[in-house]
């Protein structure tokens, strides 16, 4: 099974469209880690929700979804009812196929440092192979071995092999980031154990 892992669309429809064009036909499932929309005052938020829904992405709710839903009187002027219902139905976390734990903001924090990752990973047993998260806008890979030692893995564009005897905490970055930040995502093949860190072109 091949997964496209992405997060932080933040209402950037053009970037999301390019992302789907790049990965279409290359993956079996999409894992979306939240922040599909920005603030509910643009039709692009509606288009982004449409694309995520139509591509049947396995999705969790981010803080931007919460913002839109808290201001629903304004949001419904730009976002179709079926897309607002979709956003409202999203859980804050979920486990996929008993091995992938998805959430947007672990403990409502931006996880960037090794110490922050260690605090989160000690909460999970090794049956959860992959802890996938967003929110920080920073692509990261942390690993924990069977002795409980947590390390930050080197990350660069291209292919990385992930051994089976480690637990991983992974942030793919964001496909829709602005302000000159790189627009990134990851593709993981759970058969070959190859993780590809990619840039939206």
Radius of gyration: 16 Å
Strand content: 25-35%
Q: What's the number of helices?
A: 6
Helix content: 25-40%
Principal-axis shape equals globular
Residue-averaged pLDDT: 95
Ranges where pLDDT stays below 50 over 5 or more residues in a row are none
Number of strands: 12
SSE order and pairing:
Blueprint: E1 2-6, H1 13-23, E2 29-32, H2 43-54, E3 58-59, H3 63-70, H4 72-75, H5 81-89, E4 93-96, E5 100-103, H6 114-121, E6 130-132, E7 140-144, E8 150-152, E9 158-161, E10 167-171, E11 184-189, E12 194-199
Short characterization:
The protein is an alpha/beta fold and 201 residues long. Helices cover 26% and strands 25% of the residues. The protein has a six-stranded mixed beta sheet, with no helix packed on it. A six-stranded mixed beta sheet has the order 4-5-6-10-7-8, with helices on one face.
Verbal overview:
This protein is of the alpha/beta class and 201 residues long. Helices cover 26% and strands 25% of the residues. It contains six helices and twelve strands. It has helices at residues 13-23, 43-54, 63-70, 72-75, 81-89, 114-121, and strands at residues 2-6, 29-32, 58-59, 93-96, 100-103, 130-132, 140-144, 150-152, 158-161, 167-171, 184-189, 194-199. The strands form two sheets. The chain has a six-stranded mixed beta sheet with strand order 3-2-1-11-12-9, with no helix packed on it. Helix 6 links the parallel strand 5 and strand 6 (130-132). Helix 2 (43-54) crosses helix 5. It is globular and about 50 Å long. The relative contact order is 0.20. The mean pLDDT is 95.
